[in-house]
Specification:
6 helices; 14 strands; three-stranded antiparallel beta sheet; Pnp Oxidase, Chain A; 19% helix; binds flavin mononucleotide; seven-stranded antiparallel beta sheet
Length: 204
């Protein structure tokens, strides 16, 4: 038996709550931007993923028109900082609806560092920064998807194992439903099976 849900009948907010409880866990893009006036903004976005491999493009969604989106439209650059476990409360605090002229870096007390390839600063204590140039935006109903071409990636040396970022060292947070957040649980490993190796498949 299943329980059925009709988005049309339920309406926006109840269905949004259902959707965000079943599309889980979601990685969190901690997005730093600069306004034209020079205020540094920082806000978490969990509607986030990789959009393209070549060129490397990431995407996040602004539900409504928020400061991060406005800044990116103005200055065409942003940084996706990984949201690490040890900054849990600070990350949540940067989701507060501060007025446009207030920098979350200052209000929450988050140290910044200069980026390499773009003007918005990086979060100094985050182990990963993906520096992006705006590629394009797509507006869908009440939301705008922002695509950013990654022009530089910086990973903390301490998070690297044998030349590769290691999830056990990155310790990323994830967003779940309601007010729930997740940490990385057990890490499983398995190789992809090529069709040629599938049991019963004979090589032609
Ligand atoms: C963990 C977390 C994830 C969030 N994900 C999103 C998201 O994907 N899209 C969005 O529009 N808002 C999201 N929010 C809410 C924004 O962070 C919040 O509205 C914030 O004030 C926006 O800041 P800004 O106006 O400075 O851009 C999230 C909040 C939290 C705490």
């Amino acid at each position: 038996m299943r329980i059925d849900f009709d988005p049309e009948a339920m309406g926006r907010t109840p269905f949004y709550k259902l959707l965000t409880s079943v599309v889980v866990p979601r990685p969190i893009a901690w997005v730093s931007t600069l306004s034209e006036a020079g205020t540094a903004n920082l806000a978490p976005h969990s509607f986030f993923t990789v959009a393209c491999v070549s060129p490397p493009v990431v995407q996040f969604t602004s539900v409504g028109r928020k400061d991060s989106l406005r800044n990116i439209e103005e200055t065409r650059q942003f940084v996706v900082n990984l949201a690490p476990e040890h900054l849990f409360e600070q990350i949540n605090a940067t989701g507060t609806d501060f007025p446009r002229g207030v920098s979350e870096f200052d209000a929450v007390g988050i140290a910044r560092e200069p980026s390499r390839a773009v003007k918005p600063p990086r979060v100094a204590a985050s182990p990963v920064a993906l520096e992006c140039e705006l590629h394009s935006t797509v507006t869908l109903g009440d939301s705008t998807v922002v695509f950013g071409r990654v022009v530089h990636a910086a990973v903390s040396e301490a998070a690297m194992v044998e030349g590769h970022p290691d999830v056990r060292r990155l310790r990323p947070l994830a967003r779940l439903g309601k007010d729930e957040w997740g940490t990385t649980g057990e890490v499983l490993e398995i190789s992809r099976i090529r069709y040629a190796d599938w049991p019963g498949v004979t090589q032609g």
